[in-house]
Write a structure and sequence with these properties.
36% strand, mainly beta, 2 domains, 8-stranded antiparallel beta barrel, 11% helix
Length: 278
């Protein structure tokens, strides 16, 4: 009797079009129970939205855009700039123009596409990192590395000790920068408040003019990491997580998969962001 009732129930469900394996005696498929947003491919799209109660420099827009593919590669952008920065071409002029007035570490610029890094998904939330220093990468490559200072390990009466960070007794370590470590001066234009008349000191006591934006990037912001073979923007560790980057986006999809809401960790604060799939 029990088997008869079971056969009748299965027949009724199959006739009603229920998504069961109604033939061949196979396992019953009850549908895909995977949570939306549990894998990177769920976020693959172009997203456009805004930061809540926050504006980006210099035009004061709150717009946030994200483009990401199924492998976690993509770009991050803020603001409403109609054109993007042209690539740098002159190593003797700082990049972007006017950076010494705006500051190198004041958050993402509105006219630059930042590559995203370390994208991953945990507990149906996406985390990805943005490196503000990527802005200077192409400019740093143009620089000629210049010996900046030396550190020497001294062997004194059989006792080794370190001066300035070298590790082997009797060796000299040379560090490099994109300007010589000879000191200089940065004067502000009282009319604009921007740096002007920047100079580098010469060994004979004289001074030589230098572009203020380059002076700022090389000697104050340390925007480039240089070795004897060349310069680049300071790299992140190969195993850095999204949370270790200067800027981190952390968000989750809503039930429709069309809204990505979360926070942007920036400058020691977390800013709420709301993005819509395009």
């Amino acid at each position: 009797m029990k088997n008869d009732r079971t056969r009748v129930l299965v027949a009724l469900l199959c006739g009603a079009g229920a998504p069961l394996a109604c033939s061949g005696g196979g396992a019953v498929n009850i549908g895909n129970t995977e949570v939306a947003g549990s894998q990177l491919s769920d976020y693959a799209a172009s997203w456009d939205g805004y930061a809540e109660a926050y504006t980006f420099r210099p035009d004061g827009s709150d717009r946030v855009r994200l483009s990401i593919d199924a492998n976690g590669q993509g770009t991050f952008r803020v603001g409403n700039a109609t054109t993007l920065l042209a690539p740098p071409t002159d190593p003797n002029v700082g990049y972007p123009p006017g950076i010494s007035a705006l500051g190198a570490n004041d958050g993402p610029r509105e006219d630059f596409l930042y590559p995203i890094h370390a994208a991953n998904v945990q507990e149906a939330r996406i985390q990805l990192g943005i490196n503000a220093g990527d802005l200077f990468a192409a400019w740093c490559v143009l620089q000629t590395p210049i010996p900046y200072y030396e550190t020497t390990t001294v062997d004194d009466a059989g006792t080794s000790y370190t001066v300035g960070g070298a590790s082997d007794a009797g060796t000299v370590s040379t560090f490099y920068g994109c300007l010589p470590n000879v000191g200089g001066m940065e004067q502000l234009n009282p009319a604009t408040g921007r740096p002007a008349n920047c100079t580098l000191n010469e060994p004979d006591g004289s001074s030589a003019p230098v572009d203020c934006d380059k002076f700022y990037l090389c000697t104050m912001a340390f925007a480039c990491a240089c070795t004897a073979s060349g310069c680049t923007s300071p790299p992140m560790p190969a195993d850095a997580t999204a949370a270790q980057y200067p800027i981190e986006l952390d968000g989750a999809l809503d039930t429709t998969g069309k809204i990505l809401a979360g926070t942007l960790a920036l400058g020691g604060q977390r800013i709420a962001v709301h993005l819509t799939r395009q």
